[in-house]
Design goal:
CATH superfamily of the largest domain in chain B: MetI-like
Distance between the termini of chain B: 44 Å
Distance between the termini of chain A: 39 Å
Number of strands of chain B: 0
Structural class of chain A: alpha/beta
Number of strands of chain A: 10
Number of domains of chain B: 2
Strand content of chain A: 15-25%
Largest sheet of chain B: none
Low-confidence stretches of chain A: none
Chains: A alpha/beta (about 250), B mainly alpha (about 280), C mainly alpha (about 270)
Order of helices and strands of chain B: HHHHHHHHHHH
Largest interface: B-C, 77 and 83 residues
Order of helices and strands of chain A: EEEHEEHEHHHHEHEHEEH
Structural class of chain B: mainly alpha
Helix content of chain B: over 70%
CATH class of the largest domain in chain A: Alpha Beta
Strand content of chain B: under 5%
Mean pLDDT of chain B: 85
Radius of gyration of chain B: 27 Å
Mean pLDDT of chain A: 89
Oligomer: heterotrimer
Helix content of chain A: 25-40%
CATH architecture of the largest domain in chain B: Orthogonal Bundle
CATH superfamily of the largest domain in chain A: P-loop containing nucleotide triphosphate hydrolases
Radius of gyration of chain A: 18 Å
CATH topology of the largest domain in chain A: Rossmann fold
Low-confidence stretches of chain B: 1-20
Largest sheet of chain A: 6 strands, mixed
Shape of chain A: globular
CATH architecture of the largest domain in chain A: 3-Layer(aba) Sandwich
Shape of chain B: globular
Chain lengths: ~250, ~280, ~270
Amino acid sequence: MHQLKVVQLTKYYKQAQALAGLSFEVENGEFVAVIGRSGAGKSTLLRCINRMIEPTAGQVLFNGTDVRNLRNRDLRRLRTGIGMIFQHYNLVHRQTVLENVLHGRLGFKSDWDGIVGNYTHAEKQHALEIIAKLGLDQHTYSRCDTLSGGQKQRVGIARALVQDPQLILCDEPIASLDPSSAKVIMDHLRTICREMGITVIVNLHQVDVALKYSDRIMGVKAGTLVYDGKPDKLSKKLIHEIYGTETGDLIDE
Amino acid sequence: MKPKKLAREALAAGETMAKAIPPRDIFGERRRNFFLFALLFLALTWWSSWGTEFDLWSAFASFPKALAWLGLNFIPSADSLQYLPRIGEKLLETVFVSITATTTSAVLAFALSLFSSKTTRPNAWVALVVRGLGTFLRSIPVAAWAMIFLFSFGQSPLTGFLAIFMETLGFFIRAFIETVDETSESSVEALRASGASWLHTVSQAVLPSVVPQLVSWILYMIETNIRSATLVGLLTGTGIGFVFDIYYKSMRYPPAGLVVLSIVVVVLLIEILSNRIRRSIQ
Amino acid sequence: MNQPRIPLRKPTASSFALNLVLTGFLVLTVVGLFFLDSKKADVGQATLKALDDLRKMLFEPVMEHLNWTEAITQLGVTLGLSFLTTLFGAILALFLSFFAARNLGNVAIGNVLKAFVAVVRAVPTVLWVLIFAIGAGLGAVAAVVGMGFHTVGYLLKAYSESFEEIDSGVIEALKASGASWWQIVFQAVLPATLTALLSWTFIRFEINFTTAVAMGAAAGAGGIGFDLFMASSHYFNIREVGFLTWLILLTALVMEIIATRLREANRLQG
């Protein structure tokens, strides 16, 4: 069984088509980069997997269950198994690093324990280990609004890891970072994939980064899959087709 | 894009266009618009003055007269100090009614705003109903609310409380919806994506993000409401407004002046304290 | 299980201050509840009556002591009072704001004006109106002058802040080209901020309408507010109060729609 199987996934926003019947499978432990211009449908695709966006048609099977059939509690349980990392980190700025990381455990908690922030000793210990692994132990009790962009994104990664997810979805994780912080983040993501066996699907618009880090590249253009395969098979011509560029300039924006 | 296209077409049309349309006299047009506006304003001013029997000259004339008179009669005298305990007591009542009305309506408004903010609303219809309620409450002036509650609650502090509560609730609903929208959208998305429930997201992402902003709004409204409460007190015969009314109607002006002075002192103190608090909770 | 507890956060000055403020609010609110003397014995009964009153107001409005012509005329009077107050307040505030804005005037004068405004705004509008009524008599003059104080204070702040938002390069460029202070004001500052100024002025007009209703009711300044006061405190007619409330509510709604449009137009420009 594939860990993730997407069949004819389609999404319309009112009249505009964002996804035009995408189909693909992802195996356990793969590192997949989704490339394409902004507006190609990368973000929508990612968010349809954990149902942050409702697909219009098609199937998304995660470990064999169609996520589109899930309601309330079951949907929340699905989401606990899938971590998510965002371009703008999406942290609660006024809270500490530790508090933000532990937010990843809320999905496992009763309403009351979550409201008062009642985490077990084991959970806290686990969070501290992850924080240390990401090199943030100096900042455990710093408020997130005092951190740099790269540090904030590491908090984002820690928050996803503390869920013990099988899959991590990354929506443009390095688009707001400088090159050296971006490298740190991508290295962490690769380590997570290799050492912990967690599947990583990452939206990128930098082709060079995608080529360097991923096992597999999916090229999305106007809501359709125009390439799906190994990075070394991706020709210059195809890249130009995905990005719709004429010249050798591959860096979008 | 459109003006560019127009410009290009105009260029293409060339000389014929230039001849057909005389060059626009921008300055002349602006001058004409200005005169039209000035005329409209003059007409409105004349009409308003006529309708309300307002006379600009007597307004000007009243100014020095009123100020001189204020200087002579409104200065609290040593004599008026005997009224201070009574004034203090009623001012305290007004301040506390304002605070309680503000904080209680803030709690309710925050709960309601969660049903209307883009990031936390359960559905678009509920959101619209809450927003509509806010507009309704806000659009009825506090004086009208006071007159309405006078019927059932009579001349009591409770009437004033309810009037201020309603007006403040309307104001807070709009302010809090905007605050929740602005400060917590991204973190709410992250928590929902990790499987957190609605109550979790509200308590762990929304609340910590918005609290300083809400406190700031509450402080602002407490200050505003002390002034509103004075007005409402005049209408409902309670608090500091009532005390002023008594001195004013019985022409005991020095104690009336003392009332004004004590309100100024209290409001300024609250403003200074508010600014301190705002700085320290960031 | 003898592990040391792991805290989620370390106490900081700002979290301490925040907790202190929230506790303060709670204590003050509880104390405030004791001031809410209903004077009548039964709050429950009064609440039920209030709900019934609201129903009557909203769904069974009538006119008994006035007809449509009078009602519209009185509404016109209230609008007229707010218009005059806003107009004269805006003129005075505009004049003063050139001196109060940090990038145009001088800091000392600006601070004096700000302190003055703070004191002026601390006095409730109704008291300003009543104070001026002693000299000018109850009526339009006292209402317009009295309401003018807060209007000037509010607009002075709004205008001078709009001026302060102007790109400093524009003023510098004009200064460098030898333009005089008045030329800078009329050629750069006013055109650049005109929409913002108009939008603030209209918002104040909206506020002044509400205030004018209140002054009619509480200070006998005339207009629809006075009718409201009569319907409530003299005729004890909740259904007529309802009619007048509808009239005020609808007027306020129309103005809010216009204000929202203006603000959006303003945002698009800025």
